[in-house]
Amino acid sequence: MSTPTLEKSAASAESEAPAHLITVTFRVRRFNPEISDQATWQDFQLEIDPKERVLDGLHKIKWDHDGTLTFRRSCAHGICGSDAMRINGKNRLACKTLIKDINPSKPITVEPIKGLTVLKDLVVDMEPFFQAYRDVMPFLITKGNEPTRERLQSAEDRERFDDTTKCILCAACTSSCPVFWNDGQYFGPAAIVNAHRFIFDSRDEAGEQRLEILNDKDGVWRCRTTFNCTDACPRGIEVTKAIQEVKRALITRRF
Amino acid sequence: MSAETTTPATETVSLYDVDNPAPVIAPPRARTKKTPKSTRTNFELYGWLFMRLSGVVLVVLVLGHLLIQLVLDGGVSKIGFAFVAGRWASPFWQAWDLVMLWLAMLHGANGLRTVINDYAERPKTRFWLKNLLYAATVFTVLLGTLVIFTFDPNIR
Lengths: 255, 156
Ligand code: SF4
Ligand code: FES
Fold this sequence. Notes:
Chain A: It catalyses: a menaquinone + succinate = a menaquinol + fumarate. Chain A: Belongs to the succinate dehydrogenase/fumarate reductase iron-sulfur protein family. The structure holds two protein chains of two kinds. By secondary structure, chain A is α+β, with helices and mostly antiparallel strands. Chain A has helices at 3-16, 54-65, 127-135, 155-160, 178-182, 189-199, 207-214, 228-232, 239-254, and strands spanning 22-30, 40-48, 84-87, 90-93, 108-111, 118-120, 123-124. Chain A has two domains: 19-124, Ubiquitin-like (UB roll); 127-252, Fumarate Reductase Iron-sulfur Protein, Chain B, domain 2. Chain B is mainly alpha-helical. Chain B has a domain at 43-150: 3 helical TM bundles of succinate and fumarate reductases. At the A-B interface, helix 3, helix 5 and helix 9 of A face helix 2 and helix 4 of B. Bound molecules: iron/sulfur cluster and FE2/S2 (inorganic) cluster. Iron/sulfur cluster binds next to helix 6 of chain A.
């Protein structure tokens, strides 16, 4: 479709390309239900600085080659969590993945994250993911009167759940989980991480309720300690460890 | 009239268009507002604990069993009716085999239940696979228990 223009721009770029640019093939998984019911791979040749990110490559494609390429991104700096995608078979944030780090001599594959409905190209329906997030009640729950000043907490108490406060809800972990791929009823790592953040918060008083929710048949016991989530998390959260801590809390509560 | 003749021509280009998009490919068993239903039991907790504890016990039981059956005292060639009869004369070995039978069967069945839950997508497939599994487990456990308790060395 856009191949002729591609070749022309690639050829003209090659003759005058500055030395720091390299040629990279982006192999992008395209799906457009308004054209076909099949997803296909499409290759794009780019002249790009290897120190740029995959997101910059996608921008280049969208802005200069094929404006129909659809993907989510907002902050472009690893904060908003909207551009998690499967890059070279691993879930990552496109805005935090440098091209030089993922072997640009081979084609770089870019796919939507797995286990969620693909709406178009790299955009997936995040609703089931956020439903699981809402189901663990990710907000402070307390009893009694509102205090007149802030709720104080010791540094140690804060440290207890520090790791899980870093989540940006990108869904990289949940969509890397083989249990979630096959059974979307599973809460998934991200929901458990965000439950962990409140269960171990000394100021929160609904830890019991959340533990009860995660004790059910689609809760933490479905975790198979595959560690895909820990590998995938762009914030470096020890996701599997958080899930195990919830399991331990459930067991010590019972015995 | 002219408008009517042009519409079929565009339709042959693609089956789908803006007003008639292709069905999107939904993942298996997606979560909705209403699912999963809460069961409020500790079944999965106990199942998980059972797997850990029975696993530890089974390491001793199974490795011991294999050592006695296959390695010590002439190895596998010694096993015969007389050998089994001799061992089951002692209540200790009866108990050993009984515990091993129950733990191994339940451990294995629970493991397979997990596999079915993970990999069988359609509810009907799950249902029947699990029923088959439970039937096979109950049959094997009961038959084994019966044999251990009613074993008669002077049979025939
Ligand atoms: S735990 Fe990590 S991978 Fe999972 S949603 Fe949060 S930031 Fe993303
Ligand atoms: S665009 Fe916001 S995290 Fe990548």
